[in-house]
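Hello Y.,

Per our agreement to keep a running log of every chain we model this quarter, I'm adding this entry. I've kept the format consistent with earlier entries: sequence first, then predicted structure.
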Amino acid sequence: SDNRLTTPSGFEGPGSLKFDTARFTSLYRAFPHTADTAPGTFSFWIKPAGPFTNQQIYWCAKDSGNFQITLSSNGSIVVYDGSGNAWTSPTKLTPNVWSQVVVSTGTSDAGVWINANKQEDAGGISLLSEYNMSNGTVSIGQKNNGTDPLNAILNEFYYVDGQVVSPGVFGRIDPATSNWGPKTPAEIASGIADAGGYGTNGFYLPFDP
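Predicted structure for the entry above:
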């Protein structure tokens, strides 16, 4: 269906989840365990619907502040580091087109990549602040108070706790199009294992077909 992540070379994702502003679809979980270390990496594919509004992709509430990955009203990815800083991607997502977003925090290798292209925030804000999911409350698809619902389809959502993982672990150039495309879940699992594993609070959301 149109909700599945597919490529001309034959890749078909295991499943996708449609987040609908009319239904306020969201995922919610509390993480009571102490995370490994400050670094972490998020990777997901997103197919946003238009027109854009300010929408919450990922939200984590902690005593020290709220870490957020959002889709802005102009199509940029905005990352709030929990310390009052907002980082904005110059690349804007296109409605009804799949894009891969990778967000890494906590080390000098941290950053944001859209379709494997590293983004540079115009304000020069770094993503080096500590993001640690220990004892955090996580919501995907809206804030935990029900505001800023996401209107998009998500596929292949990963979080690797404790390390920065490069976009090349999650994707590659599609030989049929020469565009950036996904790797299979088995290939990604192998790459994450080689990099050291998911860590204490890491996860993979394949979504059912």
